[in-house]
Amino acid sequence: MLMRGGTSKGAYFLAGDLPADPAARDGLLLRVMGTPDARQIDGIGGANPLTSKVAVVSPAAGADADVDYLFLQLGVEEATVSDRQNCGNLLAGVGPFAVERGLVEAEPDETAVRIRMLNSGSIATAVFPTPGGIVDYDGGTAISGVPGTAARIDLDFAGTEGSSCGALLPTGRPRDVIDGIDVTCVDNGMPVVVAAAASFGVTGYETDLSRLRDRIQSLRLQAGVLMGLGDVSASSVPKTTLVAPPRDGGLVCTRTFIPLRMHASIGVLGAVTVATAVLIDGAVGHDLADLPPPGSPLSIEHPTGRLDVAVELDGTTVRRAGIVRTARKLFDGTVFPRSSL
Phi first, then psi: what are they for 216, rounded to 5°? Predict the structure, then answer.
């Protein structure tokens, strides 16, 4: 099933429909997407990291969740498949997909699906409308980066603090220095290196920052070691987010790289993690943020709009995180992968 999840798009599969061997599975998915090719012309990928994604869904292995969800990020020009990060955007489509495929029985009005994110082991709960026991994708909720409106999907996260790195602040400090630049290494569902845009000699409001590619790579390679992730040269994490003072009434303005291409917006868990970082006294961006009253949404500005998240922080302990997304079923059918890479 091809679905839009949040501001991403991906292919959703039942785990049982894919090879059990990870290498065989990954080879098949590369052929499905049309990777490696800048246009992905011979597959269903959209020639962009945001549309070269896969969700693998299965019945939950434990009683604390309803389904298990494995996210796979496929390269576009390079034949890579990574499971080292979560994807909160494709996560928005997992609950509806689970109902569509009969893994979860829908409730008469709305359905809550507990989803174990296998990439990190953490749990998210998705709540979405199912009038008459059928998923309803239509609604009045708009999110930046997606035209029109769709049904509201509430995502509530539990246990994402330090999900990949083992701690909210993997270095044990709210601030480190890499290449002479102050950074905050943080993980609340997504490993992120936060740096002030001004440290790179830019405003943080630009639409093209490709000139920073080499500096961003140097920064994240060193941060990966500091964060306990090891050699991240072939990994999409940690992400790097440059922060600047807000321009549209938000918490902070951002420019995010995945890992070296500037994101058209910002990822769900990336936004949650950046919001968490700038709430911490002494962290990079804390002095730039326009902090709203406690309990108010934290609006993260990005190149195509803003993304509202909820984060409840007690010192450096995350009490709760949540976000509103939408998703839509685009196509349900059979894909025909090419025979070889």
Answer: -65, -40
Strand 298-302 and strand 305-314: pairing?
antiparallel
* Closest of 112, 118, 99 to residue 332, by C-alpha: 99
Superfamily of domain 2-158+326-331 in CATH is Diaminopimelate Epimerase; Chain A, domain 1 (3.10.310.10)
pLDDT in tens, 169-226: 999 999 999 999 999 999 999 999 999 999 999 999 999 999 999 999 999 999 999 9
- 14-33 confidence digits (pLDDT tens): 999 999 999 999 999 999 99
Each residue's pLDDT tens digit, 286-297: 999 999 998 889
Please state which CATH class domain 176-315 belongs to.
Answer: alpha beta
Two domains, one topology: 2-158+326-331 and 176-315: yes
pLDDT the model gives residue 56 = 98
Give the integer Cα–Cα distance in Å for 269 and 280: 17
Look up residue 138 and give its two tokens.
């239509």
How far, in Å, CA of 178 to CA of 159, rounded?
A: 28
The average confidence (pLDDT) of the chain is 96
Note if the bond before 238 is cis, omega within 30 degrees.
yes
Task: Work out the end-to-end distance of the chain between its first and last CA atoms, rounded to an integer number of angstroms.
Answer: 22
Where along the chain do its domains lie? Answer: 2-158+326-331, 176-315
Please state the length of the chain: 341
Provide DSSP, 218-233: HHHHHHHHHTT----T
**How far apart are the C-alpha atoms of 258 and 330, rounded to whole Å?**
25
The residues, ordered by sequence, that sit 6+ positions from 147 with a Cβ below 8 Å of its Cβ are none
SS3 sequence of 21-60: CHHHHHHHHHHHHCCCCCCCCCCCCCCCHHHCEEEEEEEC
The closest alpha carbon to 251, from 311, 203, 199, 316, belongs to 311
Neighbours of 145 (CB within 10 A): 20
How far apart are the C-alpha atoms of 34 and 76, rounded to whole Å?
8
